[in-house]
Amino acid sequence: MSKIKLQPGIGQIDIYEGGATSVKGIGNVVKLSSNENPFGPSNDAIEAFRRVAHDLHRYPSSDHAALRTAIAAAHNLDADRIICGVGSDEVLSFLCQAYAGHGDEVIHTEHGFALYRICALAAGATPVEVKERERVTDVEAILKACTANTRLVFIANPNNPTGTMVSEAQINHLVDSLPKNILLVLDGAYAEYISGFDGGATLVESHENVFMTRTFSKLYGLGGLRVGWGYGSKDIVENLNRIRGPFNLSAAALAAAEAAVMDKEYIEKCRLENSRLRNWLAGALAEQDIVSDTSMTNFILARFASQEEATSCDNYLKSQGLIVRQVSGYKLPNCLRVTIGDESACRRVSHAVGQFREGAR
Ligand SMILES: *Cc1c(COP(=O)(O)O)cnc(C)c1O
To answer: Do residues 235 and 288 both lie within one domain?
Structure first.
């Protein structure tokens, strides 16, 4: 009698935990643990979602042509080189499935997004973690870590949970030095928070071995619908489409995302409000000796003197109905990741941290 055999790597995957949504015994909580847009999606997106209710018996589009065309127009890209996924998570997973397998190495950074390791292991490949320099991706260290078995390099720019960015010069240097048989994936989940930043699209245009992923879950406020996309060479996009389920995105998700990407005015408003409140909160926490690196995203990585202090502060915030994210799983045990909420949420966080610091002294 033989036992059912699990594929190698699967047993090593720690199940991903999403940000908490509630605190036992506490009502009226503010969720600042998943980097969601506190203002929600554009009204146009909500309207488009509602309209789909009349056609729920119809299969959705399988080629996502309307959404790809809208994305291409908004970002000035080639619609034929876009692939849409159930969140960008699904696109990351396609990349590992298509380009990494047993014996292959997939590079991610020390404090890089958890999904890179999960997707690599799920594909049977070996994740390789590369040190960062003071919570910033270290391009030289990545180049040194490349071997004959390296297939993929994942960099989120800006990164989650650090909020930091690698300079354009550094990314260009990496692209120029990286062997051409290694695919560099630039995860632009937070690219929209930086006015004028293309997330790496220009590099994709000029290099076959650069791929970019983007999402509707953050600035566009559609995390609940699960829509992301990728941009790469025609060849890569064709290969990823081979493994994509034909109806991976629901009609509601497609319609809402299409409307969301076209509402530029709303997106601009959210981006400006995020920057204003992020600067305010970072300053308010710094005045209380809780420092953070300059964030380019919709969250701040608040650094405490010790893991104990971070944990006690997290508990105190919870008692005040404020849910932030512990990031010890990202090797940042003395930090808390705080999503930028609306003005009232930011003021509540600052006030609660102040109370915690007074009580702690
Ligand atoms: C949130 C996030 C994503 C993706 O999210 P989806 O909801 O799957 O699109 C991807 N990368 C990073 C770095 C993120 O923080």
So the answer is: no
